[in-house]
Amino acid sequence: MKVIISGATGLVATAVVQQSLAHPKISKVIALSRRAVELPDNVNSSKLKQVLIKDYNEYPEDILEELRGAHACIWTVAITPSKSMTYPWEDVVKICQTSTTTALHAMIGAGMAEPFRFLYVSGDRVDPDSPPKPGPMGRYIQLRGETENMVRQIAEQYHGKVQVCIARPGIVTSDATYTRAFWGSAVRTLNPVANVSRDELAAAMVDQVVNGFDKKVLANADLKTRGREVLTQQDQG
């Protein structure tokens, strides 16, 4: 099985790459990113193909050739809610929405395996069916909801040959650095705040693209539960 991981150098995507490399059913991992992925020395990267892209809205033939024949893609490219406040709005739209739909069209056009599974990473507070909320954050949430609908609409044109799943994680915690570990511990103690660990999220998403989507939308609780189950199975050998 050939899997594409977009934005592969990101916090979550790096863990997704590692989970994919370790999965026995995945034979090739395409790390699509603007710079090379750095992995720990103990990670076997023999299945990894790094594909560097200048712009997620442009797909020259050499990149399409690397993507061709993939069975699935986990799309993580986006600007986080907090960082979106520091970017011009047109850049937020380009990165969070335009690049997503452009990439999906490009992958389908390149020639994917059937069915092709596309897992789009959205966010816990996103609901495309709810009315827009006021303020900058409301506009951001609305944009992500619109993007969810757009990728679904693209998939519907292919009558089951393209399958889409939306992942809506809450705050992603990580022990990758001391600072992240500190804040991750703080977040985990706040029960009202939806959160999932980076490893749980990565394990859940890789499991879903390999074995098929359980639901059209995976809420934070779904991702956390499935991720823990997968990680427990890995620990037990």
From TrEMBL:
The record, for Gene3D superfamilies, names: NAD(P)-binding Rossmann-like Domain
A Pfam family this chain is assigned to = NAD_binding_10
Give start and end of each NAD(P)-binding domain.
7-209
**Identification of the protein by name:** Nucleoside-diphosphate-sugar epimerase
